Amino acid sequence: MSLVTGILRRALRLPAPRTPRVAVDRDVAVPMPDGAVLRHDLYRPSGVHRGPVVLVRSPYGRAGWAGAVFGRLVAERGLQVVVQSVRGTADSQGELSPFDEAEDGAATVAWLLDQPWCDGRLGTLGPSYLGLTQWALAPAAGRSLRVMGTLVTASSFRDQTYAGGAFSLDNALSWTSMMRTMAASPLARATRLLRGRRTLTAALDALPLRSGDRRATGGEVDWYQHWLEESAPDSAYWARRDYTGGVAEVARADVAVTMLGGWQDIFLPWQLADHAALRAAGARPRLVVGPWVHTSGPGMAAGLREALAAFERAFDGTHGSGGVAAATTEEAPVAVTLSGDGGTRHLTDWPPPSASQRTWYLRADKSLSVQPPPDRTAVGVRWPGTLVDYDPADPTPAVGGPILTGKSGPRDQAGLEARPDVAVFTSDVLSEDLVALGPVTATVHLRAATEHLDVFVRVCDVDPRGRSVNVTDGLVRLAPGAPAAAPDGTRAATVELWPTGHRFAAGHRLRLQVSGGAHPRYARHPGTGDPLGEATTLVRQPREVLHDAAHPTAVTLAVEPRH
Fold first, then answer.
1. Which residue range or ranges hold the Xaa-Pro dipeptidyl-peptidase C-terminal domain (predicted)?
2. Quick one: which of 159, 236, 188 has its CA closest to 496?
């Protein structure tokens, strides 16, 4: 056992290693069908000469955290581990084409199953992109694949890239910049790291969007350009990178799947869609969700413990994890830890079958009430709404929330809520705890001169001191005819917020923000129908948010029954 893994083991709260001595075969070459050679490191526990293999496919290199956490730490539990660099990364040949991982994954699986030290049983492990590679290879692995340890990931990244129909600019450009920095020479890498977030921040404000990669990295990046050009839901580009169809195959192959998610993780809605697909196909995956952002330390620790326990069960205990199974949470199919110091719930399924729906309505006095707005309007008389004036030249900023890098997660909303382009509605003080547990949706009735606009909705928790902190949010992009206008010219926008598990404590209040965007998490809406990467003209988009009896703007939360 190395000093590094000893420190990591204690930090991750893992039991003592079963096999502290691990040998590593470096830079092992595996030829792909097109002649490109991909390289991996093979971690061999002492005394293990043949057995199951855990495959980890990563675009982030094999040294550092990928090798230490998902290579050596797992091998110390008695399992052989292959940590492979995907095509076009580290010293694996070819060109990186993000998310296009099915063919190389299948070829790697075939090579592994042909090795004398592999007994025909496979597992997979990893977060984020390393999770997508698992879904990509799963159909080809068939019943050789016994277990998958998936953390903060989904079977397709397309919908995250265009969340709500807008472009997830910060995530896309931050990842592009990071990958280009990793691939640069040591001198260029050091220069880019010194410039840090400043260069990226300037690039996030670039117009048109297609110039953002050049400003962030110094050159055009093919995949970033593809993402701007291939935004249509029926794009062949994304169809090739979509592995949702294989989720049911995993269930039919009886693969044990663990899923680790975070309430403010960028992939949560689509990870939960994968969970639902597994359940619909008859599988019983293990789902753990907690108050974590993408790849946060506590979340990764929980996910690794769950995966190692699943490996022990799947491989019959013959190459066990030294008692990891006993260190995991109670073996309910679903375990969720609430934000807001709400404790942990062990559930039979997700969404919780016992949850009920509760709706809060916006009122003209800027309150938020469980009572619908009263019908005070005479026939033909218009009840005024709340004006929200969105100016893309000074876009409403993103403050916290599910973001890949930077200041993500729960954040103080004081500065944002003081802006004139953010409408705020607040409930009375809660007389008892309220636990939101499940899906969250909002319906926003509005009247606007332009048909091109975004609607952003956020639920916050306001403590007795008046501090407002974001809990969940979502955005939807409107286009002409979508949604269609009512006879009176108004439109009703349905916004799917991130699912949540949060305790609003007694003495706190609920708050709803309504605005026209969250830049640069979502690329600003220019107010025109110009192509995504081309727009340079910016048009103000004032809109009236309605909250009368005929247009009841509201948010609906799934809530836990009162005990």
1. 322-556
2. 159
pTM: 0.95
CB 318 within 8 A of CB 310: no
- Which pLDDT tens digit goes with each residue over 452-474? 999 999 999 999 999 999 999 99
Measured from the Cβ of residue 327, the count of other Cβ atoms closer than 10 Å reads: 16
For the chain, give the number of residues: 563
- Determine which of 177-186, 252-261, 505-514 has the lowest per-residue pLDDT on average: 177-186
| Three-class SS of 155-189 | CCCHHHHCHHHCCCHHHHHHHHHHHHHHHCCHHHH
Q: What is the dihedral of CA 173, 174, 180, 183, to 10 degrees?
A: -150
For the chain, state the CA radius of gyration. Answer: 25
Looking at residue 354, what DSSP letter applies? T
At 497, list the tokens. Answer: 């917020």
208 preceded by cis ω (within 30°)? yes
CA end-to-end span of the chain: 48
What is the CB neighbour count within 10 angstroms for residue 15? 16
How far is 383 from 200, CA to CA, in rounded Å? 44
**Residue among 508, 519, 446, 512 nearest 483 (CA):** 446
CA 40 to chain CA centroid, nearest Å:
27
CA 105 to CA 420: how far, in whole Å?
50
Longest Cα–Cα distance in the chain: 84
